[in-house]
Write a structure and sequence with these properties.
- With about 325 residues, the protein is α+β, with helices and mostly antiparallel strands.
- The protein has two domains: about 5-95, Zinc finger, CHC2-typedomain (DNA Primase, Chain A, Alpha-Beta Complex); about 115-310, 3-Layer(aba) Sandwich (Rossmann fold), CATH 3.40.50.140.
- The protein is built from eleven helices and 14 strands.
- The chain has helices spanning about 5-15, 15-25, 70-75, 85-95, 115-120, 130-140, 145-150, 215-225, 240-255, 270-285, 305-310, and strands at about 30, 40-45, 50-55, 60, 65-70, 155-160, 165-170, 175-180, 185-190, 195-200, 210, 230-235, 260-265, 290-295.
- The protein has a five-stranded antiparallel sheet with strand order 1-2-3-4-5, with helices on one face. Strands 10-12-11-13-14 form a five-stranded mixed sheet. Strands 6-7-8-9 form a four-stranded antiparallel sheet.
- α7 (about 145-150) packs across α8.
- Mean pLDDT is about 85; it is low at about 95-110.
Length: about 325
């Protein structure tokens, strides 16, 4: 089992400050139109603003000097908590169950990670009304039609604690890794390798390849475009690894033989997104495939921000 310091670091890394804010203080609401992935603005009443930053790992108050991590936020929202109480609360939110006393063991005694393909098969398929379904529809504003298409393609399964699991597969269709996103958890499967998340827009030829960063962004773009029949919606899960490059080369090679083949670069509107966009554009050019870069509208940072802003506007 991890030691005390590892447990604290896991909570800091994996529990999103925005979800803690909404869990402990329901009056706080995300201002989607004034938020980006790097800085999510939450409001509660006149003049009350908190900014969640560092991909959910930090927060700050623009009206004062207050700032910190998820532990200081929990204690700000509930001043009666000591550090141990905040730790227990964050464990509850993340769904982490502490091991019994005396169950510690050295890191060298840890069993090897379960292969991603086996972990995938052990998880249930997405079902309407489940905790994962409610997270994706209510918090992420993904429409049922897109989620049902993802379920039919077996690219999404239900993870624990309301999280969604999104498959990365190799050329043979084997799950090589799993992107995980939930109300209080995000990450990539231990021991897994990134290739691409893929959702076909239709049953026929797919000359148009749209590449986003996160699987939820790819699903969001599919929703915004009403899931075009000619498009394969894909996501890299952030940066590009060796498996991702191999998968992209194969897909671009197929599209280079199609007169209608094109790469749509649909990354985030920030520094990392621009760098990824430049690399994707270069890969397309090297394969002889034309490319077009598109950005979320209205100055928003990513495609899920765009979808939520559209769905939440009265």
């Amino acid at each position: 089992m991890r030691g005390y310091d590892d447990d604290i670091q896991q909570l800091k890394d994996c529990v999103d400050c925005g979800m803690v804010l909404e869990h402990l203080a329901p009056g706080w609401r995300l201002d989607a139109r004034e938020s980006t992935r790097r800085a999510r603005k939450y409001r509660r009443g006149p003049g009350e603003v908190l900014i969640v930053s560092h991909e959910g790992r930090g927060w700050w108050d623009p009206t004062s000097e207050r700032k910190g991590d998820v532990f200081t936020l929990a204690r700000l929202l509930d001043p009666g908590l000591d550090f141990g109480g905040a730790r227990r609360l964050l464990r509850d939110i993340a769904g982490i169950v502490p091991a019994p006393a005396g169950a510690r063991r050295d890191r060298g005694d840890q069993p090897p990670p379960v292969p991603p393909a086996l972990r995938w098969e052990r998880r249930p398929r997405l079902s309407q009304g489940s905790a994962t379904w409610l997270y994706l529809t209510l918090q992420r504003c993904l429409p049922a039609s897109v989620l049902l298409a993802a379920r039919a393609a077996d690219v999404i399964r239900e993870g624990p604690y309301g999280s969604g699991w999104f498959a990365h597969r190799d050329a043979d269709g084997t799950v090589t890794g799993i992107e995980m996103r939930g109300p209080a958890w995000r990450g990539f499967s231990a021991g897994g390798g990134k290739t691409l998340f893929r959702l076909p827009g239709g049953p026929g030829p797919l000359p148009r390849l749209a590449v986003c960063e996160a699987a939820i962004d790819a699903l969001s773009l599919a929703a915004i475009e009403h899931k075009r029949d000619d498009t394969l919606y894909a996501a890299t899960a952030g940066g590009i690894g060796p498996g991702t490059v191999t998968a992209l080369h194969a897909l671009l090679r197929d599209r280079s033989a199609d007169p209608a083949g094109i790469l749509i670069v649909a990354t985030d509107a920030d520094g990392p997104g621009r760098r990824l966009a430049a690399r994707l554009t270069a890969l397309a050019a090297a394969s002889g495939v034309p490319s077009e870069a598109i950005l979320p509208p209205d100055g928003l940072n990513d495609w899920n921000d765009a979808l939520r802003a559209r769905e939440l506007i009265p």
